[in-house]
UniProtKB/TrEMBL annotation:
The chain crosses the membrane at residues 4-25. One of its GO terms (molecular function) is oxidoreductase activity. Residues 103-125 are annotated as: Disordered. Belongs to the multicopper oxidase family. Keywords: Membrane, Metal-binding, Oxidoreductase, Transmembrane, Transmembrane helix. It comes from Phytohabitans houttuyneae. The keyword Metal-binding applies. This is Multicopper oxidase. Residues 59-175, 363-487 form the Plastocyanin-like domain.
Length: 489
């Protein structure tokens, strides 16, 4: 067994693993901040139908539209916004072209029965057919749980292709607790779905699979490159999703001011956290409050401070806020937000080692969990209903990963550097700090190379099979996925 030497570089460098694409610079140049930000339409009904269809979407400011696979003809898809604790029936109709195949829609972050979870190879929607997913929106049996989730295609082996082509949208849950907080609301509560794509000279986005992960050369914010958005001189709640296949975001502001983070993948943090730089891996969400007070007449840029502005990489400027409206402040950020649920002590530990198989040149050929590629039907962990377990992940591969666990939310209890026992098995080494922004519940976790983490959860409410996998979509499609089956006590 070959083990990659731990890179003697700063964690951030390891996390972001910069790549320079060699693709010819054929795309049309984008004039920065020449298109307005779009806010996806919001669907609020308890029964809605979404049509999956091919559509020509005007993404670029100039030139032809981009042919995409969409939910309701737009990218990102409509935002589904529902009260938590109330049942939603969302019907998806597959009217996509034949080369798309069958659909499965994963409501990412939801605590749903296995049949409603959008599994990669089960309960599929053939072309010309529809299926109604029933979501109870009961997180851990709690009817009250506000959270910013999303939905996307999850088809076996081709999730990367399908999401790249446009199949992603936000799914927001509200509750009375969150709504009673004095946080910005209504038009001052905006979503940003951020994803990179590579455009050809005709503004098309042919999907080029890469086992390391497919990268784009243009950031899109709500489906547009470098949009501008008029804001007032007050606070805004901003719900950010990194919907990229592989590329991480490292968010910052052009004036270097700290950003107030209030939430994660799984709802509000216990308390707001001030951060000048926020890493958001694929599928992670952060909820932040941006305060434009005192900036009337000025522009503020939301930046990806990671990506080097070199050929083949997207520019660092994600979007521009134009502070053009003189408004009265009506909101504030409370000093404490929402207590984190406490899990009982774990009754079992499980360990998962993340590696790659490689060819003679050391190039990855497949991604594995505990030495195995994903196999449909094989149970890789079998927690008992209502039991609490601690799962330990060890990244013994040269790439960062973004581990996403379906069904339940988890609390991060430990981060560590990898060490190795006499048999060459990874074990927890030196402790690494847990960031205050990781104090809330989450379901998608960054794991830099040669590090590990431990998470805790209780498997409530539902029995049956669920997935856990890397959310770098080409890693997932190349087998870095496994099944846990919650069994009855
Ligand atoms: Cu968003 Cu199993 O994924
Ligand atoms: Cu991965």
């Amino acid at each position: 067994r070959t083990r990659w030497a731990a890179a003697g570089v700063a964690v951030l460098v390891a996390v972001v693993g910069n790549f320079v694409l060699s693709s010819a610079a054929t795309a049309q140049a984008v004039v920065p901040f020449s298109v307005p930000l779009r806010i996806p339409p919001v669907l609020q009904g308890s029964q809605v139908t979404i049509q999956m269809r091919q559509a020509d979407v005007q993404i670029m400011p100039t030139g032809p539209p981009t042919r995409m696979w969409t939910y309701n003809g737009i990218f990102p898809g409509p935002t589904i916004r529902r009260p938590s604790g109330q049942t939603s029936r969302i019907t998806f109709r597959n009217d996509l072209p034949a080369n798309f195949g069958q659909a499965t829609i994963h409501h990412h972050g939801s605590h749903s029965r296995p049949s409603e979870d959008g599994q990669p190879d089960d309960f599929l929607i053939p072309r010309g057919r529809q299926r109604t997913y029933v979501y109870e929106h009961m997180e851990r049996g709690e009817p009250e749980w506000a959270v910013t989730q999303w939905y996307h295609d999850h088809r076996m082996d081709v999730t990367g292709r399908n999401v790249w082509n446009g199949l992603a949208g936000l799914f927001i849950l509200d509750d009375a607790f969150d709504s009673a907080l004095p946080l910005p609301k209504g038009e001052f509560d905006i979503p940003l779905v951020i994803a990179d794509r590579t455009f050809d000279a005709n503004n098309q986005i042919p999907y080029n699979f890469s086992i390391v992960g497919t990268l784009g050369d243009t950031w899109l914010v709500n489906g547009r490159p470098q949009p501008y958005f008029h804001v007032g001189d007050r606070k805004y709640r901003v719900r950010i999703l990194n919907a990229a296949n592989r590329r991480p975001l490292v968010l910052g502001l052009s004036n270097g001011a700290p950003i107030t983070q209030i939430g994660t993948d799984a709802g509000l943090l216990p308390a707001p956290v001030q951060r000048t730089s926020i890493i958001v891996q694929p599928a992670e969400r952060v909820e932040v409050v941006l305060d434009f007070a005192g900036l009337l007449g000025q522009n503020l840029l939301l930046m990806d401070t990671n990506t080097p502005a070199t050929p083949g990489n997207p520019p660092k400027e994600l979007m521009q806020f134009r502070v053009s409206r003189d408004l009265r402040e009506t909101s504030s950020v409370p000093a404490s937000l929402r207590p984190v649920p406490v899990f009982p002590a774990p009754s079992k530990d499980r360990s998962f080692v993340l590696r790659a198989t490689t060819d003679a040149a050391g190039v990855p050929t497949q991604w594995t969990i505990n030495g195995q590629p994903f196999q449909s039907g094989r149970i890789d962990a079998d927690p008992v209903l209502n039991s609490t377990e601690r799962w330990n992940f060890f990244n013994d591969s040269p790439q960062p990963h973004a581990i996403h666990l379906h069904d339940v939310d988890w609390r991060l209890v430990r981060r560590f550097q990898l060490a190795f026992d006499a048999g060459g098995n990874p074990v927890p080494g030196a402790e690494l700090p847990i960031q205050p922004a990781e104090a809330g519940l989450k379901e998608t976790f960054l794991i830099p190379p040669q590090t590990g983490f431990s998470v805790l959860t209780t498997f409530t409410d539902h029995v049956g099979p669920y997935m856990f996998h890397c959310h770098m979509l080409e890693h997932e499609d190349m087998a870095m996925m496994a099944t846990f089956n919650v069994r009855a006590a």
